[in-house]
Amino acid sequence: MKGHHAILCRTCSVGRSDLAKALTAALAGCGIELSQTECMSGCARPSTVAFRSAGKTAYLFGDLGPQDIDDLVRFARLYRDSSDGTFADARVLGELRKKAIARIPG
Predict the structure, then answer these.
(1) Residue of 88, 81, 74, 28 lying closest to 56 (CA atoms)
(2) Closest to 36 (Cα-Cα) out of 54, 49, 53, 47
(3) pLDDT for residue 1 is more than 50
(4) Backbone CA torsion sign across 13, 9, 7, 64
(5) Between the CA of residue 93 and those of 1, 71, 74, 75, 99, what are the distances in Å?
(6) What is the pTM of this model?
(7) Which of these, 96, 66, 67, lies nearest to 79 by C-alpha position?
(8) Closest listed residue to residue 52, CA positions, set 78, 31, 77, 80
(9) pLDDT tens digits for range 27-80
(10) Using CA atoms, how far apart are residues 60 and 7, in angstroms rounded to an integer?
(11) Which of 35, 28, 36 is closest to 12 using CA atoms?
């Protein structure tokens, strides 16, 4: 995989809303490509989005809505600029730190 990617669950309500278009545009400004996929098994905490990049820790966030776009963009920039996708202090994730479902080593 080349570059940084965000994957939005299209089965969740957010994936079927106009938020997908807004998030695509917002993340493009960060150099992060947004794609969509079928169910990511985050149904207990919809809507979900994952961030991944080769050699970096991957993240899965849930309980997302339109109010999270700013935090997702902030996270995307921090993630893009990090060397390995980890953060010494989770506070930089803002409200997303409470919405993390998984952190998967790279």
Answers:
(1) 81
(2) 49
(3) no
(4) positive
(5) 24, 7, 8, 6, 10
(6) 0.89
(7) 96
(8) 80
(9) 988 888 899 898 889 888 888 999 999 999 999 999 988 889 999 999 999 999
(10) 9
(11) 36
Domain hosting residue 69, numbered range: 4-104
Of 37, 30, 34, 33, the closest CA to residue 81 belongs to: 30
Give how many domains the chain has, as a whole number. 1
- The span from the CA of 44 to the CA of 12, in Å, is 11
For the chain, what percentages of helix, strand and coil (3-state, to nearest 5) are there? 35, 25, 40
pLDDT in tens, 4-25: 889 998 887 766 677 788 888 8
Q: Per DSSP, what are the bridge partners of residue 102?
A: 60
Q: Quick one: which of 103, 99, 83 has its CA closest to 48? A: 99
CATH classification of the domain holding 54: 3.40.30.10
**Would you state the structure tokens that stand for residue 37, as one six-digit string?**
């996929």
